[in-house]
């Protein structure tokens, strides 16, 4: 039983305890219900405003009523006690099972219930800021509850609910923007939940390092790890869930849940995607705010506005928000000792780094205790209680070994046994001085690790720049500037990357290739969002692309015009905006070419082709002065031509008939009739081919007839036929040849007859 009372509650047993807070199992008498009650005795703290802040923060959880958010029943103050009455759970937390044999069904239940809880919290305007397995508690095997909204913050609030400058998070799970110390919204919690999903799938966190500092920086700088082949189906889900930029992540829990379900269907719910390890080692990443070697790295990290770390115990189970000392609870910083010195370990070059990666470095021993041994001995000499002496002795021994956590536990027990005792106060001061020394060493470690990471980022940026990947190089330099805003090398590298991307965009614009131009400008703006010239150039791209497309139409039309392809040229010019240089003149030239071609068509009696050309002119230039007149004149010209063709056809038919009669006479040997037929043809159709054909056939017939007469020695008849042939075609040499032949043969014939 507890040694104190709270009206309305019966306190049973202590479930967890820290420097200022203890959690008890209790009975709410009026409701007859067991609850967990967290109690803080404000008599033990010097900050007079602590009670008000504690109640204000606790009420955040009380405002959230959701099946998968730990239920708060009561937040109140009784005398010097601040207390929170909350739902009592016996199932443990996700940390207890996450590295065991989790089936996909269990992973699905966690994702479904936590995305719903985060969406609900986001609608109420709160960001949890510390999503991790130890804050996901269990009512039962498939019933999970989000706990510890004590460090939550209103998403739209510019005022910290805790002391100004205090930031909270867990290095292994924090989002890049949380590590960077900038404003958060619900997408930061979704990033952390994606990290939890990665751990449920693989049994390890995505980023681990030898220090909390390096772990936090990895969330900012390193690529998302690749899953093993058997889990590759989940890679796109994690790539989006863990995107470095909030705008590239899931924008709501429901969207994240839907994406998870799409992949879930590729596996069986009973599948254990990654077998449990036979031996689950402790994580290497130490907690921010603790120097105990080997402690689990999954602890809440709390930074102060000075860049010095403040420890916080794990908030899983019912050890919800206890601390290493009496100075922090639920993210509230409170100095117990009036006038305690606060050394600033950040500023200027290292201010952001201190915000991102504040931690306490271990080692070195506790010099104050070694130097002040006489004072401790004198104080212990006044102790009369053996148990108290034993506790203080163990606390001092722990301080000498630099084990502040063990010293804190022994000191708390001593303070509970003998409140206000001088020896307890002396050891308390020793503990505070030891912690302050550790904080100073932590600040120095911040600078060292930040410098190391800065150099890595600069080297990576230079290598990427040399390889031509300006966008990736710029991201490295931009991240380096987050760690060191005064780094001239990082600024030069970033400026060079932006210029290279801008130059690349201009080169693409000059070539009329606007898709890579847009990509290059967007990449440059990702590095310099406020660059007015880049924003304006990106805004100008659609107009430039349209102008280039219009000019392309004109260029195409001009090329076709050169080839006298007037219809295609007119179509290209007409497709361009009339205000594009060359478009109107090109269209007019194309129309003139079409009209000219139409005139040629008319002259060659190709009236259909002429009509098509002129109609095209009227389509693109309805007011063309010649097209309409020529189109109107075509019917008359076509009709006259058709009539002319009909007359020619009739004349040709008559000529063919008469030629046929003459040729029949030739065939029958009636040269007289044939001659008369030819003479008639020659008189009426002297230019026709049939007349020429009849003439040729008739001449051949005369020549054949002469030869026939020569064979029968009918010299006079032969001479007569030769004379008729010469009348028809005096130019032919055949008549002279035949005449000479007749004269020769007839003379021989007369000599032969005279001899007899």
Characterise the protein shown here.
It is a single chain. This protein is of the alpha+beta class and 756 residues long. Among the domains are: 9-87, Phosphorylase Kinase, domain 1 (2-Layer Sandwich), CATH 3.30.200.20; 361-530, Tetratricopeptide repeat domain (Serine Threonine Protein Phosphatase 5, Tetratricopeptide repeat), CATH 1.25.40; 553-625, no CATH class; 646-755, Serine Threonine Protein Phosphatase 5, Tetratricopeptide repeat, CATH 1.25.40. It is 56% helix and 9% strand. It contains 25 helices and 14 strands. The chain has a 5-stranded antiparallel beta sheet, with helices on one face. Strands 10-11-12 form a 3-stranded antiparallel beta sheet, covered by helices on one side. Strand 2 (21-28) and strand 3 (33-41) form a beta hairpin. Helix 18 (566-575) packs parallel to helix 20. The protein starts with 8 loop residues before the first strand and ends with a helix. Residues 156-167 and 281-375 have low confidence and may be disordered.
Q: Any descriptors?
A:
756 residues; alpha+beta; Phosphorylase Kinase, domain 1; Serine Threonine Protein Phosphatase 5, Tetratricopeptide repeat; five-stranded antiparallel beta sheet; 14 strands
CATH superfamily of the domain at 361-530: Tetratricopeptide repeat domain
In the predicted model, the low-confidence regions spanning at least 5 consecutive residues are: 156-167, 281-375
Distance between the termini: 184 Å
Total beta strand runs = 14
Major pleated sheet: 5 strands, antiparallel
